[in-house]
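REQUEST ID: PR-0412
SUBMITTED BY: lab tech R.K.
PRIORITY: routine
TASK: structure prediction, single protein chain
INPUT:
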Amino acid sequence: MQMGIVQRQTIRGTAWSYLGALLGFVNLILLSPRIFTTGEIGVVQLLLSFATMLAQFSSLGFTNVINRLFPWFRDGKGRHHGFLGLALVITLAGFIIALLVLKFYGPHFVETNMERSPLITEYSLFLPALLLITLLFNLLDNYNKVLYDAVLGTFLREFLFRVFNLALICLFWAGIIDFDGYVFGYVVSQGIPLAVIFISLLKRGEISLRLEPGHLTPHLRREIIILCLFGILTGIATVTLTSLDKLFVNRYLGEAEVGIYSIASYFAVLIALPGRSVSKISIPFLAEAWKKDDLATIDYLYSRSSTGQYTIGLLIFIGLMVNMDNIFRLLPEAYSGSAAVIILIGLGYLVSVSAGVNSVILATSSLYRFQTWLMLVLIALFVVTSVIFIPLFGITGAALASMVSNIIYSLLGILLTGRRFGLWPYSMTHLKITLLGLAAMIAGFLIPQFSLVPDILLRSLLVALIFTAGVWYWKLSDDFTGMAEKAMEWFRKRL
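STATUS: complete
OUTPUT:
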């Protein structure tokens, strides 16, 4: 039953993620480079990166508590022993601390960015509002996730927000709003998913702000404090590894290069989307399994997620490789030198998704401290490689630093889980999938070039048919086969 819920929500979450990615492609790839300057694209990406990084710190690590300890609060009556009220108190305390940091650091930030990135200094006043929205949405999304609904947050963040963003881009394009109005609307539209998820939880009777201090035994309080402390470090490390590349590009190259780098890296992020859906819904099941010391369930989720995510991720990576020329036929000339960014970041994500739910297993296990230390080591590695590679290779250097960090983190996590629990994700199936992928990629490269749209369709269709047929015939991934069957059933009903 657990795997059935995971599979259903993974399919739905992945579907919304890719529909959102399609909208993101229209917004960020087709429209934005033709409507906004690279500096304007960069400033929005930087605002989002700053807010995301600050949110990880200002949540004071409580996401770690939600993921690991919620099974000890769950009561089935919607109150959960005051868990949401406790989470909100800690989150708002973190927000106040973040505001104090911004107040004292703000003048220095403006001064250091005035010449290199003038737009970010002008629009940094939106940062507190964006931070509060991000904090509260992350809190409610994580709370909703451990209530076994990982799809709503994905729909709201990945799809609905991008619908509103598309509308804002069109309004700017039509001259109805200026860039000030666009940035304001962008921040407001971030708040719409927050309102929707709050209303959903309220209607289901899952909003209760009443505190129950009596439920917090000395042992539970101690666990919460330790988890929060390590959660702060883990959260900072997680966002650092995903956002620091843009900040370093801005530091060495300026906001215009951030815009180019952001658009190029967007393609590679497509590889990671299915993994995010699997990880979100797996968290409550893995936390319950650790509570019961059920290693068989953990091993099953681990190996199955690794095979499924690697299969889908490899297909997307191959699709990007064979369509590389077409990608840059779609983009303006300014983006023509960023192919290596797509390839390097894509390889890093491919190794990362092949690890399945390894990071969730570590985060919900007794090894969460070790995961934090590993990530801090990797931040140091990322900083060193960025300082070396970005001045030498520009945005390609940033992508190289990102790839190295992702691969080392993933492999160390796999090794740690294997040595301590005897759980390993890889098998001969992964080698078979890799060989099949290479065959499909070679077939895609052998097609002569046609005009843009027929070329994209023909290459993508050929690669997808060869790869999917092979996975299906040799039964290499149950999850991939299940998703393909669902897609075929959907098309059959509509045809």
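NOTES: Residues 254-495 form one domain.
REVIEWED BY: pending
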